[in-house]
Amino acid sequence: MKKVLALMLVFGTASLANASVIDVVTVGVSDLGHDGTPNNPLWPSETIEIGIILNYNPYPGGWTSYDGYALSVMSLGLEVSGYATLDVPGIYNTKTGLRVGDDLRHHSDFDVWAQSGNCDGTPEGYEPMIVNNAIEYMTGGLVLSGLIAGDENGNPPNSPTLLVWNLFLYCEEVGVINVDLTLYDLYDSTQIADYTDITGNNPYPEWRWAVENDLGDLEIYCSASDTNMPPYCWENWPSGQCHGDCYNDDLKVNIDDFYIFKDSFGYHYPDADYDPCADFDRNGDVDIDDFYIFKDSFIVTDVPGDCMPGGTWPPS
Predict the structure, then answer these.
(1) Do 43 and 223 contact (CB within 8 A), yes or no?
(2) Backbone angles phi, psi at 295, to 5 degrees
(3) What domain range is 285 assigned to?
(4) Which of these, 76, 88, 202, 216, has the minimum number of CB atoms within 10 Å of its CB?
(5) Are 66 and 164 within one domain?
(6) Is the pLDDT of residue 182 over 80?
(7) Based on the domain organization, do 82 and 140 belong to the same domain?
(8) Is residue 15 in a domain?
(9) Alpha-carbon span 58 to 154, nearest angstrom
(10) 8 lies in a domain?
(11) Are residues 127 and 193 in the same domain?
(12) Percentage of the chain exceeding pLDDT 70
């Protein structure tokens, strides 16, 4: 009973504690209309764009022009694991047809910008910014404008601000693709703020240095083109998914699995927020039965890896 009460308490507070300021997200859909979610996964050989955003955070005072977090300097890295290739479209010498750089796009208010790799305008001097499916650093400074605000100019309203884009992921095989944002320098590299209104006048940002918990990560699902094939987390072996291991990666049920379960709880197929990896009894609903399965395994290391592959897909 104590574990049930503790989990229910965390359910009520986790959305605030787990809020990220800077996220990596998919931008639009693939050419075939897939968005990489569990219910609409990519197919092998598909490509989807990803970007880095400054999240929308409504300011509770009627100052709509201040809605959003604020950013004054950024220094981030990006790492991709799983069966996917990270790519940035190239800049080409039109005369020779040779690639001489990477066409990574970033917010126009960054007055100073530096990124991994090198480009001196010649093919011989070109060094790619992506090495081992990772970008070591993307660094932007704001000298003239001072800051970038989330939901900048309210266009579109209630939406995040795109910081970096023109990054693409190519799905190679069936599986889960993990995209992790990292701080390039562990300390004092990315400065962020909420807007505050202590004086009762115009809101102003209260600056602090970002930590890893301020950064969001992304999971993209790649499945077979046969839409009747169960999701990867139901097919993988050995598996602890039926015991609460949503990530289905380490036979452990921890806080990472909790957030996946929490976000899907109460939804059923084909709801956009239904995550089959949190559907431990594989019946198309993430409900109280799944809650009790998760409760019994929460904070348990080494859950059994005996979940058999399969399940009816799509759920009836």
Answers:
(1) yes
(2) -60, -40
(3) 230-307
(4) 202
(5) yes
(6) yes
(7) yes
(8) no
(9) 11
(10) no
(11) yes
(12) 85
Q: What are the structure tokens assigned to 156, written together?
A: 């579109």
Q: Could you tell me the two tokens for 167?
A: 């990054």
Q: Does residue 180 share a domain with residue 45?
A: yes
Q: Are residues 202 and 244 in the same domain?
A: no
Number of domains in the chain: 2
Tens of pLDDT, residue by residue over 279-289, are 999 999 999 99
Alpha-carbon distance 76 to 184, whole Å? Answer: 5
Contacts of 34 (CB under 8 A, 6+ apart): 40, 41, 42, 43, 46, 48
pLDDT at residue 172, as a whole number = 87
Q: Classify residue 9: in a domain, yes or no.
A: no
| CA 39 to chain CA mean position, Å | 16
Q: Please tell me which residue, 108 or 61, carries the higher pLDDT value.
A: 108
Residue 84's pLDDT band (cuts 50, 70, 90): very high
For residues 25 and 163, state if they share a domain: yes
Say which residue the tokens 């704001």 belong to: 142
User: pLDDT value at position 186?
Assistant: 65
Mean pLDDT of 92-118: 88
CATH value at residue 277: 1.10.1330.10
**Buried/exposed 29-41: b ≥16 CB within 10 Å, e otherwise:** ebeeebbbbbbbb
Identify the bridge partners of residue 219 per DSSP, sorted by sequence position: 178
- The reply to whether 93 and 51 lie within a common domain is yes
pLDDT, tens digit (0-9, with 9 covering 90-100), for 213-262: 999 999 998 886 666 677 778 877 778 899 999 876 678 898 888 888 99
Residues shown for the chain: 316
SS3 for 113? Answer: strand
**Whose CA is closest to 151, among 49, 252, 58, 22?**
58
What is the b/e burial string over 248-281, where b = at least 16 CB atoms within 10 angstroms of the residue's CB? Answer: bbebbbbeebbbbbbbbbebebeeeebbbbbbbe
